[in-house]
Amino acid sequence: MKSLAERLRARGSGTRLAHWDPGSSPGCKDKNEARQRTAENLARIDVLQYRLYAEARQSLLIVLQGMDTSGKDGLIRNVLTIFNPQGCKVWPFKVPTLEEAAHGFLWRIQHATPAVGEVAVFNRSHYEDVLVVRVHQLVPRSVWSKRYRIINEFERHLSERGTRVLKFFLHISHEEQRGRLLSRLDDPLKRWKFSDADLVERGRWRSYQHAYEDALSRCSTPDAPWHVIPADRKWYRDFAVSEIVTDTLQQMNPRIPKARLAIRKLRARLG
Ligand code: AMP
Ligand code: MG
């Protein structure tokens, strides 16, 4: 049977988001099953990250993208906090600062890539430079259109130096986003998250879906695949990402290095 990673992988050219139902839950019966399997996955990730860190030869980069309210923050809180912070960094990418904007778009990204043995989580990423930048025409087409190739080369380079790149597009529906924005307005504990800009971006929904389709079509490579995660149901989103991260770490198969120690002599010295 196909793994979930294979089922949810964007196949390259001609990816159409309309073909993916944001409310579906492939490979999982219901919320109970999802919760239980997510917990099992987290236990495996814990062991595998320990080995990754000890081995200190490979690294993992997790890229999260999605419309506002798609659940990037929730996914980090529910699933990715399983990573020991000694060995994992989370990088939120916001509107570039003056200094960042004065450099090439990969400058701030390069700096955040994981060192050997480490995991890095990008909450938004270099893909903003072919998404928000394209939708709002922040640079001319002649500039952003070259970035797909530049991104593919950058990610291939990462993969050649031992970094696995896993990319997740959290796919929510227009209706679900409405509900989540409303609950940000209604809930005093969530109100701080609401931004007028969210409504501007919502008004550009179709342009964003097209920009995402192009990014997924052009930049889902064997080195750095995109996965489309149906994200209307939070329990499914958490389960699917935990499953794919677990599978990937298992394939990477990090091993604790063999220590060459003269145990008997060392014990004797300890007295
Ligand atoms: P949030 O993730 O909700 O904190 O919002 C961060 C905002 O920064 C989003 O509106 C992004 O579109 C925006 N952003 C991130 N990267 C870039 C970029 N390279 N250029 C312009 N805006 C960006
Ligand atoms: Mg926001």
Present the secondary structure layout:
Elements: H1 4-8, H2 31-55, E1 59-66, H3 72-78, E2 88-92, H4 98-101, H5 107-112, E3 119-123, H6 132-135, H7 141-144, H8 147-160, E4 163-171, H9 174-186, H10 196-203, H11 205-219, E5 226-230, H12 234-252, H13 263-270
Parallel strand pairs: 1-3, 1-4, 2-3, 4-5
Helix pairs in contact: 2-12
Residues 68, 195 line the site of magnesium ion.
List keywords for this structure.
13 helices, globular, alpha/beta, five-stranded parallel β-sheet, single chain, 271 residues, binds adenosine monophosphate
Explain what you see.
By secondary structure, the chain is an alpha/beta fold. Strands 2-3-1-4-5 form a five-stranded parallel β-sheet, with helices on both faces. 49% of the residues lie in helices and 12% in strands.
Concise synopsis of the structure shown:
The protein is α/β, with parallel strands linked by helices and 271 residues long. It has 13 helices and five strands.
- Taking pLDDT < 50 over at least 5 consecutive residues as the criterion, the unreliable ranges are none
Shape: globular
Radius of gyration over all CA atoms, rounded: 20 Å
Strand order, main sheet: write it out: 2-3-1-4-5
Largest sheet: 5 strands, parallel
Q: Ligands in the structure?
A: adenosine monophosphate, magnesium ion
